[in-house]
UniProtKB/TrEMBL annotation:
Residues covered by the SOCS box domain: 265-302
Coiled-coil regions listed in the entry: none
Superkingdom, natural source: Eukaryota
Name this polypeptide is given: Neuralized-like protein 2
GO biological process, one term: intracellular signal transduction
Any Pfam family matching the protein: SOCS_box
NHR domain span: 26-194
Organism: Larinioides sclopetarius
PROSITE patterns (alphabetical): NHR, SOCS
GO molecular function terms listed in the Swiss-Prot or TrEMBL record: ubiquitin protein ligase activity
Length: 302
């Protein structure tokens, strides 16, 4: 199936004389969150200061179809049962709606959220699938994952390669040294022992992501755990009824998480789409005098 390409001159005619493309702003947490959450490092790190509840937080911006919202667990606290919950919501955090103690069942009961506990047992309920089954929204080739936000090395989805440092803190937490880089893309798989590759989803250093793709005018949610893809974990999500945000609950043993940036250098096609969608609302795209294939691309369906 051939791609429909816009030339640079065609892009310019659609977008005007403004700067063609700027590097996207970093993904951050929303300023509205549970009362036990403290945000730091330009709102890319979320920490639960006390207790085990009131730890809900959101992505600042809605997710695009095929955008991966990726976290790394940095701190773990003993003495609790349960751990991180993660998923999607159409509850808009900018409205400052009343937050429940817990994402499960609190947000899910509202009917506009799709959230799962992140554990080996819970993920075993869903298909362990190949990321290329999410094509064309997300796919892998040449050791890179291609998403609606550009291309990133496949290794970014996987746990940290270097040895994690377990530091004993006064409040009973285990953590990695958050002042250092949390991953090294230069490490070789050949030096990474096969027996060390498995990491429990709630472990410090574990990388957890959520995304969605469009199927037949509805959306499906998929979870990514240390490079493995599970799902669909939710289906029939009415993505046209409102923006979709990532939602995270730092529940139980999960004490602190950090957002891992997943935007890459976009292709010309993606750059064009981003710019066009800045000028035209999603609902009006269907009425543009454009080829069907291009309409499908602009609406993340091809």
């Amino acid at each position: 199936m051939e791609d429909y390409f816009l030339s640079a001159s065609e892009c310019k005619s659609v977008m005007g004389n403004d700067s063609f493309y700027s590097i996207p702003a970093p993904v951050t947490f929303h300023e509205y969150h549970g009362r036990n959450i403290i945000l730091s490092e330009n709102n890319t790190v979320a920490y639960r200061k006390s207790g085990y509840a009131y730890g809900i937080t959101f992505s600042k911006e809605p997710l695009l179809p095929g955008e991966i919202f990726l976290l790394e667990i940095e701190k773990f606290e003993h003495g609790w049962i349960g751990n991180l919950r993660c998923g999607l919501t159409q509850e808009n955090p900018s409205t400052n709606f009343d937050l429940p103690q817990y994402a499960l069942p609190g947000l899910v009961d509202g009917g506009q959220s799709w959230i799962l506990p992140i554990s080996t047992a819970d993920m075993s309920l869903f298909d362990h699938t190949c990321i290329n089954k999410l094509y064309p929204t997300i796919y892998e080739s040449n050791n890179h994952i291609h998403t609606s936000k550009g291309s990133i090395p496949t290794s970014v989805l996987q746990p940290s390669r270097h040895k994690l440092l377990n530091l004993s803190n006064s409040d009973g937490e285990d953590s990695v040294n958050s002042m250092s880089s949390l991953y090294s893309e230069e490490s070789s798989d050949e030096n990474y022992n096969e027996n060390e590759k498995y990491m429990y989803p709630a472990d410090v250093g574990s990388r957890i992501g959520v995304t969605y793709v469009i199927r037949d005018n509805l959306a499906e949610m998929y979870m990514l755990l240390n490079g493995d893809v599970f799902g669909p974990c939710a289906t029939g999500i009415p993505y046209r009824s409102g923006p979709i945000y990532a939602v995270i609950d730092l529940y139980g043993t999960t004490k602190q998480v950090r957002i891992i940036q997943t935007f890459g250098i976009p292709s010309l096609k993606i750059a064009c789409r981003d710019k066009i969608l800045q000028q035209v609302s999603h609902s009006k795209v269907f009425h543009l005098p454009l080829p069907k294939r291009l309409i499908q691309f602009l609406t993340y369906r091809s």
